[in-house]
Amino acid sequence: MLTQIKGLHHVTSLASSASRNNTFFTDVLGLRRIKKTVNFDAPDVYHLYYGDEVGTAGSVMTYFPFRNAARGRAGTGEVGTTSFTVPLGTLKAWAYRLTTYGTTDLETDTRFGERRLLFKGPDGDAFALVEADDARTPWTGNGVSQDMAIRGFHSADMRVKDGGASAELLKFMGYEEVDRAGNVTRFAISGGNEANTIDIETLPSVGFAGQGAGSVHHIAFAVENRARQLEVREALMDTGYQVTPVIDRDYFWAIYFRTPGGVLFEIATNEPGFDVDEDTAHLGEALKLPSQHAHLREKLERQLEPLEA
User: Fold this and answer.
1) What's the CA gap between 38 and 295, in Å, rounded?
2) Distance (Å, whole) CA 96 – CA 289
3) Contact, 121 vs 127, CB < 8 A?
4) Of all helices (H) and strands (E), which one includes residue 252?
5) pTM for the whole structure
6) Burial bucket for residue 276 (CB in 10 Å: 0-12, 13-18, 19+)
7) How far is the CA of 113 from the CAs of 96, 109, 131, 294, in angstroms?
8) Beta-carbon neighbour count of residue 239 at 10 Å?
9) Which of 20, 89, 200, 290 is the most buried (most CB within 10 A)?
10) CA neighbor of 237 nearest in space, from 247, 225, 229
11) What distance in Å separates the CA atoms of residue 128 and residue 156, rounded to the nearest whole number?
């Protein structure tokens, strides 16, 4: 069993409009845009990062907004709902806020004793706010007060046809089964960050998802540094997984592999962090380009959709 993984690092999804995506996460949810850069493989597409003040691992939601992308089709082989923690007793205030901003499909329920508010993002993205006692310091610079602001990720749901192999993978990665109800099994990792929970939802009769706007592209798990990442890579490969070489993503190093259930996993380092090329006070303000795309700056600044600060 691995001991290097410390919980979630980030979740990356697809969108159809950069400006609408930016407005939703900063104005509605109150998160900070911590990085405005571009997709390494498609530099005419933004890569936008949102999180707490410094982009702490376990707080970062990222997006590739492909302009006018068709909406994805929900199904198995993907991350379904991405959940954030909010303080106890704040779901009513959040429901009012989301409704005021025109957010649709609000629904409340309780899962494993925790109250949740489920809602949809601009592209039908599935989200939940979960009430929890979470000591992480939130970002409050976008008008959401500290007494209700999002603290970071709570968990992510994996929707799969057969949960057995995915459960074994999570256990190998250091997660333990902590609860079960119906077709949902909860796994958590101890000794890590607060974003330490994964729920496996087993749906044998549901077809495979089709990726598009609103779909999660991949889910990333955190390790402290490159040395721990290489240990994880070797262990996964020894177990039979096809793992990519280490890729420099400027703000972290990444490796990727496909799970038995079809979900794309990433293992990302906490180093060097999002302040490597911007002062903390100005994160997410300037367009930052990977070195291989620096020569495209003039063209990209003309073509990319303008975003509010």
Assistant:
1) 13
2) 38
3) yes
4) strand 252-258
5) 0.97
6) exposed
7) 23, 10, 10, 49
8) 12
9) 200
10) 229
11) 9
Taking the domains of the chain in order of start, what are their residue ranges?
A: 8-303
Tokens 């629904």 found at: 107
Report the C-alpha gap between 162 and 201 in whole angstroms: 9
Per-residue pLDDT at 308 = 83
Quick one: pLDDT at residue 104? 84
CATH of domain 8-303: 3.10.180.10
CA distances from 261 to 209, 211, 278 (A): 11, 15, 38
Provide the token pair at 24.
């939703």
Which residue has 């968990």 as its token pair? Answer: 155
Q: Is the pLDDT of residue 183 over 80?
A: yes
Other C-beta atoms closer than 10 Å to the C-beta of 149 total: 23
Cis peptide before 290 (omega within 30 of 0): no
Pick from 264, 309, 276: nearest CA to 13: 264
Distances 161 to 200, 206, 209 between C-alpha atoms, Å? 10, 7, 11
